[in-house]
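From the pipeline queue, job 12 of 40. The input is one protein chain; the requested action is below.

Action: predict structure.
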Amino acid sequence: MEYKVLYRKYRPDSFKNIVGQDFTKTMLQNAVKNKKISHAYIFTGPRGTGKTSTAKVFAKSINCEHPIDGEACGTCNSCLNFLSSSDIIEIDAASNNGVDEVRELINNVKIAPTNSKYKIYIIDEVHMMTQSAFNALLLTLEEPPSHVIFIMATTNIESVPITILSRCQRFDFKKFSIEELVSQIKYVCKQENIQITNDAVEEIAYISEGGMRDALSLVDQLSANSTDITIENILSNYGSISIVFIKNIVQSLLNKDIKTIMSLFDELKRGATDYKIFIKKLIQELMIYCIKLKTEYITSNLSYEEVKCIVFELNDCMNRANINVNPYSLIELILLGYIKNDFVKDPMKSKVEEDLKNNDSINENVNNITHEVEDTSLEEKSLQNHFLEIKTVRINNCFCGAKKNILQKLQQEWLNIMTSPIPDDILNLLVDSKIVAASESHVIIATNVEGTAILINNRLLEITDYLCEFFAQEFTFIALSESEWLKEKQIYIENLHNGKTYEMLSEKNLTIPLDSVEKREPSLEKIAQELFDHDKIEIV
């Protein structure tokens, strides 16, 4: 006997065998039960969600001579001869999408059904039809013969003209849930005597992305081996990754365990895991943690906002069309960017401490230097706090008068920044930056790398002079990292929804002006110059 693949063998032949899509099943059954059959239907949804199978079951029920509660009886002449019926016509619009094929269909529509109540046309992938073909079909859909019913299926409803959609009853098919997929996979494996572990079932359900056909095809392929289907088979052959591995990465991130994170990513880089599957699972685990942060009283090294920003950055990484480096390197950098290395000793500082211990002549001044270091740290912290005030004020003032037309104008001019007479060292800082918000007086610049935003802000007075000359207009600038911008943007949107208004704030009220912050001398450099001859050290 010829072997039939599992997704075809277990294709439903009645409404009761259709998995999921409860609303659609109920509506279609009621239409048959109450004899309220429309002349045209369109089923839309992702691949492998049962659109064509449901269309066939519906067609069978419509032509059934003795339907029971909207379900085909399965014993009448129409049901028994359904598969070979000349009154059920299946058309693949992907290969029959021209106007000539549609005209032939229209001519055949006029012919009455041979042995059934209705002549039913099931048109699959209807969005592949040409515009001329849709136009030819339009009149028939508008005034069809009473004996004809059209059932169309598509995975791309946006490509179907609105004139066609308005003449059809539309039913949206959802992706199958993990639970529905798991249940059906277990049922099929039991019927086929396929040995499979529970974690393998769940992994197949996950990587099938809501498609029953994909899930059963994967089971079919794996069952060709004589061995049982295990999670190891799937992880090693289909680019997937275990949830335990994902949990280890998330836990290492939350514990700020850089060493473990780098070790895990080294393992990923050597493997063959699909990075998109990895990102999806990582995002899913982080979102679960986000919910815990909001709903449970738990302590964490990362805030809700930080975890949310990681999710957005990972999603952006997954959606990049072209990644010219190892994608795991990008993901690793994203995660490491949210770990503050407060516990990592600065090599210069360690060298200073070592010299202090070994040099008797310097030991005499240890107490004085220690006090200087503490004073410098306090000064540094104070300056950083004042800079945060400046940043907050400028973001507020930009949002206060933000206008879309100004933003679009500056973004268009920004495209020519590389050809402007600005020094190369400044252009190097601005090349990967973009303008994300603007008013008549203030501009926010966003960069992909947090370090670049810091470097821009450290030279902001100088950069402002060049940019104002470039735009031929006076502006006040501030630079943010992409993650900072996403946070501020979300806050701005929430404030708009809540009706909060922004008022201009003055920088004159700040304790220390921006130029004082920008010109501060790094404390570590100052310490080194105090301890050693200036010509014997190099600051890098």
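Job complete. The CA atoms of residues 15 and 25 lie 6 Å apart.
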